[in-house]
Each structure stands twice: as C-alpha cells, then as structure tokens.
Fold this protein.
Amino acid sequence: MEIVRHTLEPVYDAHSRILLLGSIPSPKSRETGFYYGHPRNRFWPVLEAVLHEKIPFSPDGKRELLLRRGIALWDVLQSCEIKGAEDGSIRQPEPNNLSRILEQAAIRAIFTTGTKAAALYRRLCFPQTGREAIPLPSTSPANCACSFEELCRRYRVLLPYLEGR
C-alpha cells in the first residue's frame, strides 16, 4: 500500500455544467500529469464517441476541450492509501473539497466514474454538498465486463446537461 496525495488540479471554469469525478488518479495518470492517462483506459475514446469530437492528444488540448464543452473533471479523493490503481484497495480516504468548483460553476449534475467513486462520493462528499451524484460505469480496462458500446450508451446521459450553454 502506498499513500497517494492528489497532485492534479481540477479542470473547470465558470461555464462548467457537469462535474465528472473519478476516485483518485492512477499511477499512470500521475506520471502523465493528467486524468485518465493509462492508454487502455476508455475514458477519452468514450468521450470522443459521445461528444462526436476528436479528443486532442495533449493534456492542454484535453483541458481546452473539456472547458469548451462545459465539463469539469476532478476526483472524489484528495488522498488515500492504495495499491497501484486498485480502487478496491483504497483505505484511509480523505475527500477533496468540491465546494471550490460548486461555488464557482453552474454545475447542473455531478457524475461519478466507477462503483468505488460513487460509494466514496456518497459517504464522504454528499454530506458536504447535499447533491446526489449519478453513477456511471468505470472506463478502466479492469472493467472488461462493460463493452465500449455499453459505456458510450451509458455516458450519453451527459448530453442533456451540456445542452443550452
């Protein structure tokens, strides 16, 4: 087990309409310096399919796309003990303070990406925010039970919240 502290800044601005929350950045994401950095994670390909927009390769390009489309991105946890990227091994979780985003952006809906992120949000963040989160399936390669097509179908729930910016 390793103690991991969140080092990535949240992606958001005053025009963000939805907030997507993972659990905590994986070792590969921490190495690349941006969210969903593992090449086999399906997060970016799913967003590309759902938004009908080519996802840039660079972190700056991804950040610009998220902001242009009204998507805020961060994680539920500020720190925890974790073994590699195994969400199931998380111990001693400490939540991020989501109020910095919720007070500055007109967030219409909060979504969690994965079962563990959903459970951690309910336990640690909901008491602070008073706002329910809509759980989405994990895009991790470990979630091989969920096909790419099913992920895209489930992630299309984001679209109505992004309309009418």
Summary: The longest strand covers residues 86-95.
